[in-house]
Design brief:
mainly alpha, about 65% helix, 2 domains, Arc Repressor Mutant, subunit A, Tetracycline Repressor, domain 2
Length: about 200
């Protein structure tokens, strides 16, 4: 069988170069913010030419959106511990780790501020992060509905907001540590609000 060759003139995107650029974008965002980030600075930090960036993304906005989305969505989890409470505590821990990541904890407030100044790109980033992360989290509630832990007709969209709101408010808005039992307390309050019930194993 003949070996397939890359068409003449086609760009071959090397994964290690893409990874270096991705890390450089995150480092630059954390260091200087969205508004001051320059393609030249990212290329220099990554040790590549600026053309390597434009082979992957058509613009600065597209590059930032793609990199931040990949970083954020890859950290979304839908744990299956066997109980809704266990799943939600594990999921909340993953959200905590995402929001307190050394780089992302500096990037996110700047992205929020940029959204007020420049709504277009910010809306693209929110769509690239929020929608996919919520779809991952929804699996936990779908399993719980299937097990009978939640009442039929549970408003899953509201449940997702109830979970995310307190930890976001505490970490990003108030910028205070949540404390050792905070995540469990949030989960237990949400479970009571949703009318969740424990389902014995094998039921």
């Amino acid at each position: 069988m003949p070996t397939r060759r890359t068409p003449t003139g086609a760009a071959v995107l090397q994964p290690e170069v893409t990874n270096a650029i991705t890390e450089a974008v995150l480092d630059e965002l954390a260091a200087v913010g969205y508004g001051r980030l320059a393609m030249e600075a990212v290329a220099k930090r990554a040790g590549v030419g600026k053309s390597a960036l434009y082979r992957r993304w058509p613009s600065k906005d597209a590059m930032i959106s793609a990199v931040v989305a990949e970083f954020s969505v890859s950290r979304a989890t839908a744990p299956d511990t066997g109980t809704l409470r266990g799943d939600l505590i594990a999921m909340q821990q993953a959200v905590h780790d995402w929001l307190t990541h050394p780089r992302f904890s500096r990037i996110l407030p700047d992205l929020i501020a940029e959204g007020a100044r420049n709504p277009g790109p910010a809306e693209e980033i929110r769509g690239a992060i929020g929608g996919p992360r919520r779809e991952v989290a929804r699996r936990v509630f779908d399993r719980a509905l299937g097990r009978g832990e939640l009442p039929a007709g549970t408003d899953v969209e509201l449940a997702l907001d109830l979970l995310a709101g307190p930890i976001y408010w505490r970490l990003v808005v108030r910028r205070e540590p949540p404390g050792p039992d905070f995540l469990e307390h949030v989960v237990d309050h949400v479970l009571r609000a949703l009318g969740a019930r424990e389902v014995p194993a094998g039921e």
